[in-house]
């Protein structure tokens, strides 16, 4: 039997040990993260069920501020339906029960697909928003939220993901004819970096925090997946997910 080179053997043992340590860190981090993960939805007294669950959010700051996606708030508030405006609700776990708490929209950033909500009542456990400019391609992260929303029950689910690329997106022009000089300048101004991830996010994960597995510090917000059709997001997911860097959350929180 051929023995491994001593240095190679030590390297293998180190990598195995690092892998176990990383997994242990994530186990502890998930336990700390979950109390700050909330659902975002709406309430209509005459609807059955009265509370509709749309996406994910997470608590930051003083425990009464919730971060989510702008498109989640638009769906929850009935913005897309001219005949109805729903009341926003934030769903908070209370042991085996779920409490639907009133929430108000503080500010919305449609360009970066972010929104801040204000919770009523007592503060909840909060996550820390970190420096997303420190994130690097190849870095392993995790995100926790509610895939498929209420279908799986009110149980936060965690997926791991690597930053595959840090790329730039811009709001596209409606058509080629509108691409004049002014439109091109506007496109350049609206371009911003996003994290492309190799983890799979399903509908309902929108608004989930993307965080460091060891520290739990939030580095981004899940906002969309790459899919050919809406239906394929469930039946044939691409495994390519995008997240908004946390620096835009910080800008929203500080009003910059």
UniProtKB/TrEMBL annotation:
Matching InterPro entries: Peptidase_S1_PA, Peptidase_S1_PA_chymotrypsin
Main enzyme class: hydrolase
The EC number(s) this enzyme carries: 3.4.21.-
A molecular function (GO) term: peptidase activity
Tagged with keyword Protease: yes
UniProt cross-references to Gene3D superfamilies, sorted A to Z: Trypsin-like serine proteases
Membrane-spanning residues: none
Keyword Protease listed: yes
Keywords, comma-separated and alphabetical: Hydrolase, Protease, Signal
First and last residue of the signal peptide: 1-23
Single GO biological process annotation from the record: proteolysis
Entry-linked PANTHER family: PROTEASE DO-LIKE 5, CHLOROPLASTIC, SERINE ENDOPROTEASE DEGS
Name of this chain's protein: Trypsin family periplasmic serine protease protein
Designated gene of the protein: degQ
């Amino acid at each position: 039997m051929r023995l491994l080179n001593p240095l190679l053997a030590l390297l293998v043992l180190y990598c195995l040990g690092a892998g176990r340590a990383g997994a242990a860190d994530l186990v502890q981090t998930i336990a700390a993260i979950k109390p700050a993960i909330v659902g975002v939805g709406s309430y209509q007294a005459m609807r059955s069920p009265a509370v509709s669950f749309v996406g994910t959010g997470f608590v930051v700051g003083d425990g009464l501020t919730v971060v989510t996606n702008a498109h989640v708030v638009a769906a929850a508030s009935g913005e897309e339906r001219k005949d109805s405006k729903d009341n926003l609700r934030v769903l908070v776990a209370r042991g085996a029960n779920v409490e639907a708490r009133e929430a108000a929209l503080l500010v919305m950033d449609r360009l970066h697909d972010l929104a801040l909500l204000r919770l009523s009542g007592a503060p909840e456990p909060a996550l820390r928003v970190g420096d997303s400019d420190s994130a690097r391609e190849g870095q392993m992260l995790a995100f926790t939220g509610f895939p498929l929303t209420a279908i799986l029950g009110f149980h936060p689910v965690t997926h791991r993901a690597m930053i595959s690329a840090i790329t730039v997106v811009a709001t596209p022009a409606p058509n080629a004819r509108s691409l004049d000089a002014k439109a091109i300048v506007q496109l350049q101004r609206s371009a911003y970096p996003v994290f492309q991830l190799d983890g799979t996010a399903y509908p309902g994960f929108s608004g989930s925090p993307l965080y460091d597995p060891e520290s739990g510090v939030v580095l981004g917000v899940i906002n969309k997946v790459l899919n050919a059709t809406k239906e394929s997001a469930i039946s044939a997911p691409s495994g390519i997910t995008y997240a908004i860097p946390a620096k835009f959350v910080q800008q929203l929180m500080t009003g910059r």
